[in-house]
Structures are given as C-alpha cells and as structure tokens.
TrEMBL record:
SUPFAM superfamilies in alphabetical order: MOP-like, P-loop containing nucleoside triphosphate hydrolases
Assembly behavior: The complex is composed of two ATP-binding proteins (PotA), two transmembrane proteins (PotB and PotC) and a solute-binding protein (PotD).
NCBIfam families: potA (TIGR01187)
Protein's name according to its UniProt entry: Spermidine/putrescine import ATP-binding protein PotA
Domain ABC transporter positions: 10-240
Family stated for the protein in its record: Belongs to the ABC transporter superfamily. Spermidine/putrescine importer (TC 3.A.1.11.1) family.
A GO MF label: ATP binding
Gene source species: Actinomadura viridis
Gene of this entry: potA
Length: 380
C-alpha cells in the first residue's frame, strides 16, 4: 500500500479539543503554505502538542477540520496521512538498529527490501549519519538519536513534517547544531514543517512564520518581524522580546492621540494603527527598549520635547553593560521602572546609577494597543 500524495497546503479550520474541563485547543484556524516552516510558540500547556497530535492523527478533534491539499484528513488514520513526526524524547525502538528504525515506516508501507535499503542509506546521509546504520540507540549520543528519529520521519518522503520540541532534551551547543541541520534539510527537501517550541529565540532563528499560542488559542500569526514590529496585543508584544508597557486612557483626534497616564505627562501616539480606542477608553502603549534614547536631563529654556517626540524624566536605577549595547533601568516619578537599550556607539558612558535622565522616543515608535484587561474580557 502506498500513501496518496496530493501536494498542497496544510490547513486547520476551527479546531477544538477539550479534555474534561480543559479547553486544550480552542477554535484554531491556520493555513500553512507548501514548503513553509511554521512554528507554534507558546508557554507550557498552551495547546501546542495537542494541535500537532491532531494534525498527525494521534488525536481526533471535537470540532473542526484538518485539510491537506484539497482533502479533509480529519478522520484518516495517522499512517495514511503522509505526515512525518519527531518528538522530544527520540522514541526510537531500542531493540532495532538505527537503520532498522529508519526502515520501519517503509515496512509499514509495504516497500520492498531493495528500495528500503536505498532510501535508508539516503536518509542516513541526509542527517549526516553515514556508516552508523548498524548501531543501536544506546550506542548513539542524544543528538545522534534525534537525527535517527528525524531520518525515520522523512524516509517515506512525507509532505509535512511535524516536530514537537525536538531539541528539548539536548544541551545548548547540540541544539544550535541541530537547528542548522533542520534548516538545511528543510531547504533541501522543500518539505512543509510545523515545529513546536516554547523557546522564543529558536522560533526566531528557524521559522518563516510563527503562531503565538495562549490558552489553546492562536493570538497572532506572522513573520518574526511582523510580530515584533506590529504586535496585535500586549500579550504578543511581551512574548516577543522586551517591552515597555504604559497603561492609561486614550484621548485623540485624527491620526494622533495621547495616552493619559495618571501622575505623568501624557504620551503622544500615532493613532492610525490597527487598534483605535474610543476617547476616554483604557488603552496600552508599548515601546521597545531599543527605540528609547537616554539623555541627561536638560533644564531651562528649550528643554521641552522636540516635536514628534515623547520625553519622560526619571532616575537611573541601574546600567547593565552588554558589550554591544547598554541596558538602562530607569525609575519614573510615581513609580514604575522602564528600560532602554542603547547601542555602544550612542551610549553616554558617563551616565550611571542615580543620575537624572530623560527617556526620549519618536512618537511613531509607540504602538497603541487594547488594554490587557479589556483583551481578557473580550476573550472570555
Ligand atoms: P503544550 O504542548 O503547549 O505544553 P498541551 O497541548 O500538551 O500543551 O496541553 C494543553 C492542555 O491540555 C494542558 O492544560 C494539558 O494539561 C491538557 N492535556 C493535554 N493532553 C491531555 C490529556 N491526554 N488528558 C487531559 N489533559 C490533557
Ligand atoms: Mg507540548
């Protein structure tokens, strides 16, 4: 028996899955283009593994549909889906050699010995384990075992490869090496990969697009740059990199508005983005640390903010030297610590703890978003 191989995109439509009271996956829709590397990124328990199991066919969703190309595969048994899977804990058969492990999916598919041997040799070469086929899993390092698992997942030439935290058990160096290997294999085979991790940096390095998971839901899908530059929520902004978040009420007309923060000067914001609160509604503003300049507090004439800029006065709590840049932690009057990251070339090395400074940023670098409390209410 051979598996049908209709090429095409992988699509989830309104997938839901509950375990008792827990909504593990909640109305997830997602479309992956052929050859795309998409990562599901989220905290532990956010529903990533359940989503992969539903795509693989190890779990049936309560609602929704899985489609591959123009076919619904929701009720197709796992071994007929033409989807390869790699889990965190290698899951190799201990009593079989590497080559026998890799040959296993070919046997299940009824492929003859001559072709099996050839495909196993090719797969071993793809994962750079030539000559190791006769070893048993216990005779291989963790990284090598995971390569065998990867070879086993691609040997039957699946259209889609699913990987669930495949480096979770490996140390940092091995992880980085295997990351590059997976990216090379993705390029060479042109295979669609759906990858799961809770490691933001891994997601940034490897993915074409990232889907941010939160409590069984996808909060946002996009390229790393889109998620970083144009987060759609405070949650995503805080998940992708570091953020300064200001909370207040919105007040604005036209394309410019202000966030009125009790006890502080208001923050001017561009109001033409995706979220436009009503006047007087609570809202949040996110500013990335590297968008903020740190300058000594100016006094007297002409010390007002430059046009189009926000300036907040504060006191330096700490300066952290990071080689390529410096991170300043600055306490603002009325409480609240904010941070700025300044490149080595622009930083004033004379600024230190206790100094009175100003945090300044261009108005266009502020991202106006829904207040997190309102977000939570809308979701529930
Ligand atoms: P992640 O992979 O993002 O860590 P999971 O998909 O494993 O998340 O789990 C999502 C939620 O579903 C968690 O609350 C988890 O405890 C629950 N869950 C997952 N599998 C089962 C199961 N077989 N039985 C009961 N609850 C489960
Ligand atoms: Mg998981």
């Amino acid at each position: 028996m051979t598996t049908t191989s209709s090429s095409g995109h992988l699509e989830l439509r309104g997938i839901g899955k509950r375990y008792g009271k827990v909504s593990a996956v909640d109305d997830v829709s997602l479309r992956m283009e052929p050859g795309e590397f998409l990562t599901l990124l989220g905290a532990s328990g956010s529903g990533k593994t359940t989503t992969l199991k539903i795509i693989a066919g190890f779990e049936e969703p309560d609602s929704g549909e899985v489609r591959l190309g123009d076919r619904a595969i929701t009720r197709l048994p796992a071994h007929r889906r033409n989807i390869g899977v790699v889990f965190q804990n290698y899951a190799l058969f201990p009593h079989l050699t590497a080559a026998q492990n890799i040959a296993f999916p070919l046997r299940v598919r009824g492929i003859g010995k001559a072709e099996r041997d050839e495909r196993v040799r090719d797969a071993l070469a793809t994962v750079r384990l030539e000559g190791m086929g006769d070893r048993y899993p216990r005779q291989l390092s963790g990284g090598q075992q995971q390569r065998v698992a990867l070879a086993r997942a691609i040997v039957f030439q699946p259209q889609v490869l699913l990987m669930d935290e495949p480096m979770g058990a490996l140390d940092k160096k091995l992880r980085e090496a295997l990351q590059l290997e997976i990216m090379r294999i993705h390029r060479e085979l042109g295979i669609t990969i759906c990858y799961v991790t809770h490691d933001q940096e891994e997601a940034l390095v490897m993915s074409d697009r990232i889907a941010i998971y939160d409590h069984g839901r996808i909060r946002q899908v996009g390229t790393a740059e889109e998620l970083y530059e144009r987060p759609g929520s405070v949650f995503v902004a805080e998940f992708m990199g570091e953020s300064n978040v200001f909370h207040g009420t919105f007040d604005g007309t036209g394309s410019v508005g202000r966030l009125v923060v009790p006890g502080r000067p208001p923050i001017t914001v561009p109001a033409g983005g995706s979220h436009r609160p009503g006047n007087g509604a609570s809202a949040a503003v996110v500013v990335r640390p590297e968008r903020i300049r740190v300058q000594r507090k100016r006094t007297g004439e002409g010390s007002g903010p430059e046009p189009g800029h926000n300036v907040l006065a504060g006191v330096v709590q700490d300066v952290i030297y990071l080689g390529s840049d410096r991170r300043y932690l600055v306490e603002l009057p009325g409480g609240g610590t904010h941070q700025a990251r300044v490149g080595a070339a622009e930083a004033d090395p004379g600024i230190g703890r206790g100094d009175h400074v100003e945090l300044a940023w261009d108005r266009s670098d502020a991202i106006l978003l829904e207040a997190p409390a309102a977000e939570r209410e809308a979701a529930s």
